[in-house]
Fold each of these.
Amino acid sequence: MLLEIKDIHVHYGKIAAIKGLSVDVDEGEIVTLIGANGAGKSTTLKTISGLRPLSAGKILFGGRDISKVAGHKRVLMGIGQAPEGRGIFPGMTVTENLFMGAYARKGNVDKDLAEVFDLFPRLAERKSQAGGTMSGGEQQMLAIGRALMTQPKVLLLDEPSMGLAPKLIQQIFSIIEEINRRGTTVLLVEQNAQQALQIAHRAYVLETGSVVKSSDARSLLDDPQVRAAYLGGGAESAI
Ligand SMILES: Nc1ncnc2c1ncn2[C@@H]1O[C@H](COP(=O)(O)OP(=O)(O)OP(=O)(O)O)[C@@H](O)[C@H]1O
């Protein structure tokens, strides 16, 4: 197993956001976390990347306990994240933003840059444009591209479809599939459960900080309770 999240608890002050959550991600998979607002999806990703500390439980990466490893070291180990809200450097060009993803590591950066431009031709067309002047969709591409420049073994994606027009959403999801086909494992957090389940191999449903259901993605798409609660089938909640 590439990534093992074992019975973790995470707090914001006294508020327990994650309560005994366990999730596994195997090498080569796309795994998605779905759930209502506030279920703890983003917090789970932030905890894996080291932005939030654990109160209990542990996280193993490649069999090694990384629970106490600093965030920047986790990036070097192969945990890459494209954060919610993009987090790109607005005053830097597209190329400079991409190089920032690779500044701390060794290896052939130009080859990875060429690969990112191959995945996102739009970024190649706009390589000298300031990141802050790119459209929402382009900034999302840039954030994913920058995460890829860290050469992740697992790519953590937080709401990549947020705020994008339907056509662009399709495009981002196809690119995520392509990134996975080229060998990167993906852990995807999405409000857009329908789209996420269509590209994922497996999925976990989160409710108030715990997993309430997990299965292969196809069965969740067909699950009446999941359809009702998360796929626009009507009733709001309760599995
Ligand atoms: N900085 C914070 N301070 C206090 N509480 C927080 C903070 N960030 C998140 N929370 C709380 O932790 C819980 C989980 O939030 P989280 O953002 O992980 O949920 P989510 O599933 O990603 O939701 P969404 O889909 O709305 O982004 C929520 O109750 C939220 O209010």
Amino acid sequence: MKNLFLRKRPAKSQSGDEHQQGETPLEASTESGENTYNNEHDYPTSETPLPESEIASDEVAAAAVTTVDEPQKKIKPKKDMLPPYDGPVLEVRNVHRSFQTGSRIIHVLKGIDMEVNPQQLVMLKGRSGSGKTTLLNMLGGLDQPSSGDILFSGQPLQDWGDRRRTALRRKEIGFIFQAYALMPLLSAWENVELSLRMADVPRAEWKDRVGHCLDLVGLSKRVKHRPFEMSGGEQQRVAIAKAIAHRPRLLLADEPTAELDSKMGAQVMAVFRNIIEVEQVTICMTTHDPTILEVADHVYEMADGRFIR
Ligand SMILES: Nc1ncnc2c1ncn2[C@@H]1O[C@H](COP(=O)(O)OP(=O)(O)OP(=O)(O)O)[C@@H](O)[C@H]1O
């Protein structure tokens, strides 16, 4: 596959080795045809490309999936659930996870240590069954370690009750899945709006926020499409808009490009880099795909429940 990413950043392994970087322009196309829908939600939709300093080449400018009509605004993450904290978004210390199936105990995670810093794109790679999803579930408070600590913005999640962890997930974390997880009967706009409803964002803010998020992922002209009327890449970009709508600090993505071809996968990764800048979000994702690793700031490689690099 060609190198297709919008920005060039060194990817570091846990040992600090830097991956070799080449020219990595985003491939010059979008996967969908002309828009046939009008914007009935009355929000801005003109298509000024990213500033020149933000793009790698004219080819990229032609392809930019992240079009905006105003200089992009930096949006500060909410601080309502957590006190201000300058340290890592995630600190994982000697985490183990075992499951009991019948009389058997399966030791899946065997002493994980990691750190995810603000506005980083961190990838977990490894073979099927190595423990990536198990770890990701714990990072998002969906599961608890058998032992060890996970700190979210300095707060020990294991000391929190279920209700507080659920509130944290709703307000501070966005989830993206391999299979998009969109509501099939709702339009792109309504899917993103649903996320704001779930996070108790005041209704008065919905219109601007939904428009902004769909604009950020390059779908301002597809707001009325329902999932089955969109390509896989477009559906995943709606899922990203949905995941960031409530301004989470952390985005967790489980194999977000696994169902996509290389071009659409590259567009998704370009969107990830853009939302890190604009929304100041931090992203941790799993992948099998070696071709997307170079867009990461840091890569952790897992084998049999441990990091090997
Ligand atoms: N709830 C559970 N009960 C028993 N075993 C489990 C449970 N969850 C995960 N496992 C086991 O833990 C191991 C790691 O699973 P996990 O899904 O984390 O791997 P993965 O690296 O994400 O794989 P893939 O890339 O295929 O998604 C597997 O052997 C799996 O069967």
